Structures are given as structure tokens and as C-alpha cells.
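ESCALATION

Customer reports they have been waiting on this structure for their group meeting. Please prioritize. Original submission:
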Amino acid sequence: MRFRRRNKRPVVLSHEFIIQNHADTASCLVMGLLLGLMFEASAKYAIIFIAVQYNVTYTTGDNSEQFHFYDYGPKDIATIIFYMLVGINLHAVIQEYILDKINRHLHLSKTKHSKFNESGQLAFFYLFSFIWGASILNAEEFMMNPTSLWEDYPHSRMLFQVKFFYICQIAYWLHALPELYFQKIRKEDIPRQLCYICLYIAHISGAYILNLQHLGLILMVPHYLVELIFHASRLFYFSDENKQKGFTIWALLFVMVRLWTLTLSVLTFGFGLARVENPGFSVADGNFNVLPVRIGCLGAVCLTQAWMMWKFINFQLKKWREHVKNQIPKKKITNTKNKRTKKESNRANFVNGAAKLEGETLPRIRKSKPV
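Update from on-call: job pushed to the front of the queue and completed.
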């Protein structure tokens, strides 16, 4: 009898050990911080990681109604770290219980397997973020009043939902950096993923720190909708290559959202904030409405949108060239088949060295009698 070989467990703190147990490690840290709330000595430290900090309460003149707002500060880093750990746990749950089970039925190649996992994770995130962001815009009515983007600037006081949304957004994109190592992403795909992760972190953090939360929300929600359609279409394409209608819808919305982003950015930085410019640059008051900052923000948005359109145009040209190349061999095959049929028909017209005329029969050949 042959004994089955047992798989050797990886060495503790080795690369394989960290990759296999990173989700369990993150969940233990999350549980440790939650248990810290149960004890008085550790509760004041654990609450910094879990709860949203910098609460500011305003009361009306007769003290009958209170309004709760939030500011930002260094303690937000601890909160972002906690929700980074939560993001790692959710990433592992979606991968193990949803995407891996679907992959077993599809039998994809290694390249398609990694792209399927990437699109699956991002589709869940974009769907959740789009619904959450749209609900905030609907409740605060930012879309109904575009002048609120620059009136009463700086908007240094945020509502709970707005601040928590930005903290979760920053935490998710920061958690995506170690996931490149945990998920064993191919070296060819790392530069592409690292590029858009860093762009998300820079733009969302910039809107959060510069008190441009309203503008960031209005630009993020349509962008997340377009990305959701793209990755959902990608998932359907991997399951059935004939399902490509979603890419057409994505292409149309992609161009429209790019124009929307550029128009709203120019309107806000070029006209709105310029007219209500407050003199002086004050970090303590959260006032960043000065010309260099406005030019820098508008330049960053315009360069990013131009880069995205350039990538989009190259992608469409590549698909068009592939479509043309696939059609050319078909035409050649049909032409060669026609030529072969003509040659065969010509050969059939020659029998025993005599040409057969159309509508005529060949002369009967006499057999020689034996002498």
C-alpha cells in the first residue's frame, strides 16, 4: 500500500505562512480591539481605532436642538488602520466563499482567473460604495444645489455619514496595497493595479484634507457607477464570451462621466471658489482656497481625466484592430474555397484528354478489337 503524502505546513513567519494566514491575523487584531472596549483601562485607547473622532456639537440659541458635526485630525489614522483590517477580512470572505466557488465551475486560465478575481472584488466594492454615496447625495441634496460646492467654504464641518464614508474609502484603497502581496498578483499586473490604487488614494485623501468633500462625493458616485458596469460586464464576459453588450454601455457612460468631471471641476475651481476667495492660507481653519492650491487641484483632475481617456482610446483601437484581423482570414478562406471549386470543375471537364463542351456530350471512344 502507498501512503498519502501529507502537505508540509509552511514555516512560521515565512512568506507562505503569512499569505495563508493573513486573514486570520487581521481578524484576531480586530477582535482584540473590540475586546478592548470591555475594560475601562483599555477602552479609551480602543475607542480611537473603532469610533469616528473629532465630534463637534452645535446648539441653537435656545438650546433646544443640537447638531453634531465632525472634523478631521491625526487620530483618523488609527481609525483608518482599523477599517483596513476589516477590509482585509471582507476581501478574504468574498474570495473564499464566492469567487473561488465560481472559478471552480468556469475552469478559467491563469490570466483570466486573476482578472476574474480582480473584477469580482471591485464589483462588490463599487456596488456598495455607489449605493452608499448616492444615499448621502440624496439625503443632503448636494446635486440639487451645485453652488453648495463653493459657498461657505471651507466646509470643515462634516456630517457623520460623510466622514465615515471617506474613512472607509481611504481604508479600502490602502488595504488594496498589501493585497497585491497576499493574493500573489502576477508581476505583469502589479504596475497597472498599483497605478490606479495610488490615484484613488491621492484624489480621495486630497478631497478629504482640503475640505472638498462635497465635490469629491459628486464626482465619485458617477465614476463608481461606470466602473461597476465595466467590471460586471467583465464578469459576464468571462462566463460567456458572447455577452459583450455591457461594454458598449460602459463606453458611452465612460465618455459622459469624463466630460461631467471636467466641467464640474472647471466650474468649481475656476469660477466658484475664485469668486468667494478668502484671503490668507490657514491650515488651522481648513482654508485652502488660494490660487496655487486651486491650480494644483484642477491640474491633477485634468491630467487624470486625460490619462484615462488616452487609455480608453488605446483600448478601443486595440479591440478594433483585433476585430479587423479576425475578419481578414475569413475572407481569404472563402476566396481560396472559390478558387478550388473552379479548378475542380475545370478538371472535371477534361476526360481522357478531350475537352467537354457545355451542352454537348463527349464522343464515344471505340474499343479496338483484338486481332
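Sent to customer with the following note: The longest strand covers residues 55-59.
Escalation resolved.
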